[in-house]
Design a protein that fits this description.
Blueprint: E1 7-9, E2 24-26, H1 34-49, H2 54-75, H3 80-83, H4 89-105, H5 108-122, H6 129-140, H7 146-158, H8 166-176, H9 178-184, H10 189-197, E3 201-202, H11 213-220, E4 229-230, H12 231-239, H13 245-252, E5 255-258, E6 261-264, H14 269-277, H15 283-293, H16 299-309, H17 312-322, E7 327-328, H18 330-344
Parallel strand pairs: 1-2
Antiparallel strand pairs: 3-7, 4-6, 5-6
């Protein structure tokens, strides 16, 4: 073949490479070439493909090609030491399982999740609990429905204390969680038992009960779930006390004032009160007076507040209450944490629970 007919391809991110009039010189992408990735994917599935009928083979090959394309593109974004793990036997076994799950599931979103899990698995080279959890998650994920994932994610949310302000928390509660809330509404007792069977739940239907959904939210965001008060009441406090302008400005910085109604901008007292304790200028007294004005909601009022802003909360609370006695296993926590992180746009590390 003449030198003029050689084609050099750099930065491959797609798996389909068509040769025309010459040799193709592949430049490795992060330690593994695109052709190698595709070849490995096809090799690990060769035996599996033989069990399908001819018509099923065509469909399976299309799904395999989709997985290869997406997986190759993702590998181009990781470090060399991660992509090189693809040549390890244990990783190729994991890849086979992930591709098979993708083919069986026939769902683009599932494929993306399995690829994410593969990349994370490849980044952990030492044998450890998290590696084993990821391996189990890859195997279990194709056997879970969106409703299963939703209940795991909402259980995780109910165990969290996010450090966001009131506007951000409203956005999460009533918009970003909406899809999870909707999917959670069709969970049955059988689903709960199944999640226990596959290792996502523990303690099914035993007598040990956790706190209600409403009480956990009230405890986690104690400055958020409060009744607003009229601005005139705040002015009365200021007029009857001799707070310095510095104190007033500081306390006003943690408050919202909209339509002459007062509320807290911060959502958690355990974050703000340690800062207040360090101030010896009357801030603590002023803050406490404001806090007394904004009385906490009851559990029923909290439920009404949630459902009036997003009706999907009604069924979700009912579902979460129904599985109140079960707790998340490490596997359930891992799957729920990943799903919740993607929905609310906040990275939630697994180690904050352990």
């Amino acid at each position: 073949m003449s030198e003029t007919n050689k084609q050099k391809i750099d930065g491959i991110t797609e798996s389909t490479i068509n040769q025309a009039n010459g040799d193709i010189v592949i430049t490795a992408v992060n330690g593994v070439s695109a052709v190698e990735v595709v070849q490995i994917c096809n090799d690990v599935m060769r035996t599996q493909m033989s069990i399908y009928t001819q018509q099923a083979i065509m469909s399976a090959q299309e799904r395999l090609d989709y997985f290869c394309d997406k997986f190759t593109a993702r590998l181009a974004t990781v470090e060399d030491k991660v992509s090189k793990q693809l040549k390890e036997p244990s990783i190729q076994i994991a890849l086979h399982e992930s591709i098979r799950g993708s083919i069986d599931g026939d769902n683009d979103e599932l494929t993306d999740e399995l690829i994410d899990l593969m990349i994370e698995r490849m980044s952990i080279t030492e044998r450890c609990s998290k590696q084993f959890i990821i391996d189990t998650a890859r195997q279990i994920l194709p056997k879970l429905t969106p409703s299963h994932i939703a209940i795991l994610a909402l259980k995780v949310f109910n165990n969290l204390k996010l450090g966001c302000n009131s506007d951000e928390l409203k956005e999460i509660l009533f918009n970003r969680l909406d899809k999870l809330l909707a999917n959670c509404s069709i969970i049955s007792d059988l689903d709960i038992e199944y999640l226990n069977q596959v290792g996502c739940f523990g303690n099914p239907k035993m007598l040990i009960n956790q706190s209600s959904v409403e009480s956990r939210l009230l405890s986690a965001y104690d400055l958020f779930f409060r009744k607003n008060c009229d601005n005139a009441k705040l002015n009365k406090i200021i007029s009857t006390h001799s707070y310095s302008s510095a104190v007033i400005i500081w306390v006003f910085s943690i408050l919202n004032l909209k339509n002459d109604e007062l509320s807290f901008k911060v959502t958690r007292s355990d974050i703000i009160e340690p800062q207040i304790e360090k101030r010896n200028d009357g801030t603590k007294d002023f803050y406490q007076n404001v806090k007394d004005l904004l009385t906490p909601l009851s559990e029923n009022e909290t439920k009404d507040y949630l459902t009036s802003n997003n009706p999907n909360w009604f069924k979700a609370i009912e579902t979460l209450t129904n599985c109140n006695s079960v707790f998340l296993s490490p596997l359930g926590t891992y799957l729920g944490t990943r799903a919740l992180s993607k929905h609310i746009g906040i990275d939630i590390p697994l180690n904050i629970f352990y």
